[in-house]
Design the sequence.
């Protein structure tokens, strides 16, 4: 969902009270590239999944900064909905380039880059994509009681127009895999429901929520774990709506919110198996 719509929705819910800025204490904070702003585009899925790949490489000592605007360019649409799996499929088909080579939509009128230069080597966009994200490197995981657990399922969602498959596991197992991945220093891409009273970009917090089935309307990268002043566990989320909130664009999502409002997560198979 677009950033502007979500901000207006959050402000318009009068039943939600503004929360004073909370001080969070990091338990784990993974390295990341700068927070970006997707503007009015629908490409949160590209920003979040690319951010996850970037952090994974930064942890390996590789300086990788990737271009979401290039993905927007190759799709030829500014408002294409998708999922984390969509990004993985897009770079497998069209490649990817560095952020410096294609930083924003102002480059749409220029020829697409034919080469990517990295550490003295020259790659085509497709070769570069394979170097930063190997085929089948990431696993897509969901938790949906409508489907059998511990099987791969095709989620019946409008954004899953490619009919991608997800490993379906119970909520508690999904939560445990995400926390373990972060503690073992692997980034995770999160996809889920932000149409909740307790989700506020203005406050930088996603906490209270209802018990309805989550809808699929936003993606963010998970890059850390933190505790609030009451020692509750929160996941540190790298959003793509700019830096104008108390945490410079980051958000803190409570353990309960992530457990109940997740549609899917994406992590490397190594992270999932640890």
Sequence:
């Amino acid at each position: 969902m677009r950033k502007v719509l979500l901000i207006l929705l959050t402000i318009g819910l009068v039943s939600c009270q503004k929360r004073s800025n909370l001080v969070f204490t990091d338990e784990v904070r993974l390295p990341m590239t700068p927070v970006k702003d997707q503007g009015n585009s629908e490409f949160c899925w590209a920003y979040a999944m690319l951010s996850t790949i970037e952090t994974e490489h930064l942890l390996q000592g590789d300086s990788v900064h990737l271009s979401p605007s290039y993905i927007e360019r190759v799709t030829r649409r500014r408002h294409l909905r998708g999922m984390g799996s969509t990004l993985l499929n897009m770079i497998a088909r069209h490649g990817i380039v560095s952020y410096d080579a294609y930083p924003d939509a102002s480059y749409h009128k220029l020829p697409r880059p034919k080469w990517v230069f990295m550490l003295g080597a020259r790659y085509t966009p497709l070769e570069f994509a394979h170097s930063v994200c190997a085929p089948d490197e990431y696993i897509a995981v969901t938790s949906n009681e409508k489907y059998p657990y511990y099987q791969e399922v095709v989620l019946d969602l409008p954004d899953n127009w490619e009919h991608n498959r997800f490993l379906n596991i119970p909520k508690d197992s999904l939560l445990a895999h995400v926390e373990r991945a972060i503690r073992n220093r692997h980034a995770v891409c999160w996809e889920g429901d932000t149409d909740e009273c307790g989700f506020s970009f203005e406050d930088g917090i996603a906490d209270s929520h209802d018990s309805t089935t989550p809808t699929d309307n936003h993606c963010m990268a998970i890059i850390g774990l933190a505790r609030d002043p009451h020692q509750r566990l929160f996941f540190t989320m790298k959003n793509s709506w700019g830096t104008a909130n108390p945490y410079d664009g980051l958000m803190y999502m409570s353990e309960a919110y992530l457990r109940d409002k997740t549609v899917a997560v994406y992590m490397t198979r190594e992270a999932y198996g640890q």
